[in-house]
Design brief:
Two copies of one chain form a homodimer. Helix content of chain A is about 50%, strand content about 15%. Chain A is α/β, with parallel strands linked by helices. A seven-stranded parallel sheet of chain A has the order 3-2-4-1-5-6-7, with helices on both faces. In chain A, α5 links the parallel β2 and β3. In chain A, α2 crosses α3, α2 runs antiparallel to α6 and α6 crosses α11. Chain A starts with a helix and ends in a 12-residue tail after the last helix.
């Protein structure tokens, strides 16, 4: 069944693709089998991460970008993976909007897939990468990964993508400034969207100054991860594009203003990566991160599977009563890891 | 040395407190010792999480809140833990702003501590909880934990706090709507800040409708964590306040407008929790989550310490060349966990 699905998917059948994506996202047995089978066909796609604060118009920008990428020579297929916050009420509603957007685009060369963001970051990362593999194997040349960015998720997206685009808008207020500073750590390209709003030029200047300041420092610009190695999902360093000065562009996504320039910079960045050897380094970093996330998830699941509920609750009760610290409880509970097996390696 | 520091800290010495916080955040040997020693004195503080999108004026609101809480009977001490995105350039600048803010407040009963958000989510959670323990033991009755929220970090904050406040502002644009939906999952109190902006009433109505819709559903409102258990930092369910209808308030933090009402709702929520038994359930959930985060970090570190760099790179190379999948590499690498010891349990 899986082989049949993959065969149809390879021939461009969207229903088969959709089915494979669902199985992979559910981490079902057929999904796992599909991933093993299709993995050798991966490694061709250009993965582009797009992040920015709520209200920055990311979705509109991503849609405009997708349409424009389709016009490139050879009319490459474009996938959009939108990591959406999950709603407990509306649930499907967000997904529903996406589906409508997809219809609005009305181009079977563009596939939009929403993914719920609730759950482990490591888990999101692993699932996003798995969906990317499916699109990659299905012949999608560009995979746009969109997340709402603030803090963690931004860093995470930079670990999944060859090119990271950070979207900003004019006049978001004060505390955006600190975020901007953090954002420069991961951005390959910066976009000031909604550039017809007042303050756009100031935002652009601010970002350019920050970039240039950072670029001139002799200290390593990136990889200040004090906690690197603490948990798999954050365990690997982000491989930054050395020697690449991130351009700052203005766009008005609703009118597709500035999109050609953005595409140009994306292609330039890809070219730069390929010529500098950075592409291979990014690929290795993406795969390393993916492998480590999978290990962390497996370690956790194996441990979790070994700890009886009573064992955990007993420790929690001792900590509740201040008879021992959470750290001592963790040490006690780690004993369940002692005779761990490499599960599923049979 | 540690006992001396803790003694001084207990007597209200801010320098000693600051020193203990630094050691704890650095996870140094004295920091660990301090945590063990002070843990029995914890469990008294009311932990309040405050989250919201960039530009929502959270910091101003948190400062106004801190000042107002100080005026409560007995003049309780208030700690602010601000989880800031780290900047590789400005680094200390954000922290610097905070210190200035603290000076501006000019009240030694308020202690503001910034914490870098880069690094693992599980790590942030564990570090924030550790800092909370220090403040708690040092006699801070209220601990305000502030994060920039969008997606993950919101959920995380709800796992650390007794009361979670979600801050929104009028007219942030379209994709904020989907976030709002997600936010209802965790909010105990909703605040529309910058309520003098146009659209405030609409935002308020929207949020109230969402809350009431959600409240009327018979399905469990919360805990839709499909990936629960996947990784420790997200492994435990959020213990929501059952039977509590989250109020929606308007504030103008810059003018301290609406702050008394907010304080009233915070105290009401604490009272509700204590009367309903929810307080103990929250405490248990916070501690359970903390213990599980510590386990996940330890599992990961133990594994990471056992894997030689060559072993990992060999697997990455095989995946790069598409000779095996990331999942197969993870299975191979899990073998290093086989003879794991419960490190530091001596």
């Amino acid at each position: 069944m899986v082989l049949d699905l993959l065969d149809k998917m390879g021939k461009g059948n969207r229903l088969a693709l959709s089915r494979v994506l669902s199985e992979v996202e559910a981490d079902s047995a057929p999904g796992r089998e599909a991933l093993e089978k299709l993995f050798p066909s991966t490694g061709k796609a250009h993965k582009i991460g797009i992040t920015g604060p709520p209200g920055s118009g990311k979705s509109t920008l991503v849609n405009a970008l997708a349409k424009a990428l389709r016009q490139l020579p050879g009319n490459p297929k474009v996938a959009i993976i939108a990591v959406d916050p999950t709603s407990p009420f509306s649930g499907g509603a967000i997904l529903g909007d996406r589906i409508r957007m997809s219809d609005a685009i009305g181009d079977t060369g563009i596939y939009i897939r929403s993914m719920a963001s609730r759950g482990a970051l490591g888990g999101i990362s692993a699932r996003t990468e798995a969906l990317s593999e499916v699109f990659d194997a299905a012949g999608y040349a560009f995979i746009l990964i969109e997340t709402v960015g603030a803090g963690q998720s931004e860093v995470e997206i930079a670990r999944l993508a060859h090119t990271t685009i950070v979207v900003d808008i004019p006049g978001l207020g004060d505390d955006i400034q600190s975020i901007k500073a953090g954002i420069l750590e991961i951005a390959d390209i910066l976009v000031v969207n909604k550039a017809d709003r007042p303050g756009a030029q100031q935002s652009l200047n601010f970002l350019r100054n920050m970039i240039e300041m950072g670029f001139r420092t002799t200290a390593p610009r990136f990889g200040h991860h004090k906690l690197a190695g603490m948990v798999a999902s954050e365990g690997t360093q982000i491989t930054q594009t050395q020697g690449w000065l991130p351009p700052v562009l203005m766009t008005i996504a609703t009118k597709a203003d500035g999109i050609p320039q953005l595409i140009e910079e994306i292609l330039k960045h890809a070219e730069y990566l390929r010529e500098s050897g950075g592409w291979r380094a990014k690929e290795a970093a993406i795969l390393r991160h993916n492998i480590e996330s999978l290990v962390a998830i497996a370690l956790w699941e194996a441990w979790k599977g070994r700890v009886p509920d009573e064992g955990l609750e007993e420790q929690v009760a001792l900590v509740m009563n201040r008879q021992q610290s959470p750290r001592e409880a963790a040490r006690q509970l780690l004993a369940y890891n002692l005779n761990i097996k490499t599960s599923s390696s049979e």
